[in-house]
Amino acid sequence: TIRLDRENISSIGKLRSLGEIHSLYLQQNQIKKIENLDCFPNLRFLCLAGNLIQRVENLQPLPHLCALDLSHNQIQVLDTEELPRSLRILDLTGNECTLQHGYRELVVAALPHLLQLDAEPIHGNTGEEEEGGGSSSSEEEDEELLPEPSIPFTVDRDFFVDLHRELARRSQRRRRESLEEHQARLEELRERRDLLLGPGWE
């Protein structure tokens, strides 16, 4: 996780590839353009709230992005083709683009996996497979790990942190259950070995 919020940053510079970074916080800065994010190929959470951004762009190099906060910027017209189709949570509140006719329907139609838009749940989206190809096992695992929000996420509640904690908690539970199953199998093998090699067997 990288936290650079409230640092008076005016632009996103070009960085070396940082594949291990999954969460990036850049809210409350002076950033005018979304750029140079291809150095974070595994980014899942991106917060750019409270900046000076006028266009949604250059997000396609982020195929795993599932939560994006662009609230309270200066986006007047939204080009939905610039939004990664992997998004589950999107916040554009406080932007003029939300006043476009048919805005919500347009966004929902463009993002088949979206669960929440502007702190309001999306009803009907089930994260179905895209035409022409099935979901990979990693995508299915993401679907299972990602909880459907039960309460509205907001920047003030630091919703990226809340969601990441929930993902981590579920992942830990899965690992714990797997370990318990492994230990049970080992114990069963030990019992069989004792039966085979015990007194009177030979």
From TrEMBL:
Annotated source species: Menura novaehollandiae (superb lyrebird)
PROSITE patterns reported in the protein's UniProt record: LRR
PANTHER family, A to Z: LEUCINE-RICH REPEAT-CONTAINING PROTEIN 46, PROTEIN PHOSPHATASE 1 REGULATORY SUBUNIT SDS22-RELATED
Ranges of biased composition (kind: Acidic residues): 127-146
Stretch forming the signal peptide: none
Region annotation (Disordered) ranges: 122-153
Keywords of this entry: Cell projection, Cilium, Leucine-rich repeat, Repeat
Keyword check for Secreted: no
Protein name per Swiss-Prot or TrEMBL: LRC46 protein
Pfam families: LRR_9
Compartment(s): Cell projection, Cilium
